[in-house]
Design brief:
- Keywords: Acyltransferase, Endoplasmic reticulum, Membrane, Transferase, Transmembrane, Transmembrane helix.
- This protein has 470 residues and is mainly α.
- The protein folds into 3 domains: 114-240, no CATH class; 254-338; 343-470, no CATH class.
- It is 69% helix and 0% strand.
- The chain has helices spanning 2-12, 42-49, 76-101, 113-116, 119-126, 130-143, 149-174, 178-210, 214-220, 226-229, 232-240, 258-288, 298-335, 352-358, 361-377, 382-405, 411-417, 419-433, 436-469.
Length: 470
Amino acid sequence: MASSRGGEALARSPEPHSPLHRRPPVAAEGDDGRGEDQGAGGSVWADFSRRASAPVHRRVRESPLSSDAVFKQSHAGLLNLCIVVLIAVNGRLIIENLMKYGLLIRAGFWFSSKSLRDWPLLICCVTLPVFPLGAFTTEKMAQHKFISEPLVICLHVVVTTASILYPVYVIIRFDSAVLSGFTLMFFAIIVWSKLVSYAHTNYDRRILSKSIHKDDIHSNFPELDDLKWVSFKSLVYFMVAPTLCYQLNYPRTTSIRKGWVIHQIVKLVIFTGLMGFIIEQYINPIIKNSQHPLRGNLLYAIERVLKLSIPTLYVWLCMFYCFFHLWLNILAELLRFGDREFYKDWWNAKTIDEYWRMWNMPVHKWMIRHIYFPCLQNGLPKGVALMISFFLSAIFHEICVAVPCQIFKFWAFIGIMFQIPLIVLTKYLQNKFKNTTVGNMIFWLFFCILGQPICILLYYHDVMNRKVKL
């Protein structure tokens, strides 16, 4: 009886190698179980894997957007979607703007009739090279020891101060157009910065040469030779080179790429035109239909600021690309100037401090060389040296904007000095959350979305009020 039951059980149980007895293998990642089967019974297993009873859930897996897996996925498709949405939204805004205002841009939009009458500013701009010539004469007299060191310093102070006060006087005296005045002040500040670097560098060379034996100068420090200190050719090159820091020799390229220069000039014209289109078509109508941001309805002021923030951001990015990338590289190529680190990847800045160290490299290098390091060498703490650097930057931002507008309410000065608490805040948040995204978002929010539109509205309404009073 037992043997008969055992035989019946063996008869009822499936064979060990039959498809019903085998467990389906667990598929590797990316394997859907429909790959090529190997060995005996492969075709039978292939048929089973397509049946309704075949298992489809074989391992533990995370959803692609879960917190553990989101950074392991490629988001190129979502980035493409954002680009398409950005193009669609801006396209709709352009059509809406043209339907509402028509084409506002006009030929010669950069130059008003008043700008064309600003011949005193043109004369002032043409005569600015007088000040480098005065600095060169001072250095020549110092080289031949015709004047004492204190007198050399006094003459350089007079020359550099006059290079700023002269354009300020001309702009205010002849009530120039804002754009013309801004252009002149921009050039004047560049000349002032270069003259300070020229005087400071030569002063440091004289101090260094006095501490070194004369024989060592010729053998080990040829760059400190008196005969090589004051070179008119090196000064002329420095005054037109895309740098604010003076030195006798710069890294140079071997040739000029003429085709590349033409290509960059074409891009410069295109992006300058785009900048003008955004200003005329978007920014001007918005600010003309706005109120003073510190008066009236708060919600309306916030709406105007946010509406102005996007075109202002576009103009600011175009300005950065036109000046720091296109124009400075064109100038460097024509002069075969080799060091073209005019900016770093400031858009990835994790703190406000990091942004200011990467955004404008010519000014940053000038500040470090002629303001920050001298402060440290004189025993000042780093925090005080940083505040002095920002204070000087705030003064020249205010001069560059307030003098052409003839509005001295220190909006630009306050905006730059406000960067100091923002530096402390972004550093604190970065250390607290251990996250670089927070500081980067604060930079974009305060600097681009809120700061620039508010400054534009403040200066615009103050200028309009000034014109009404006149």
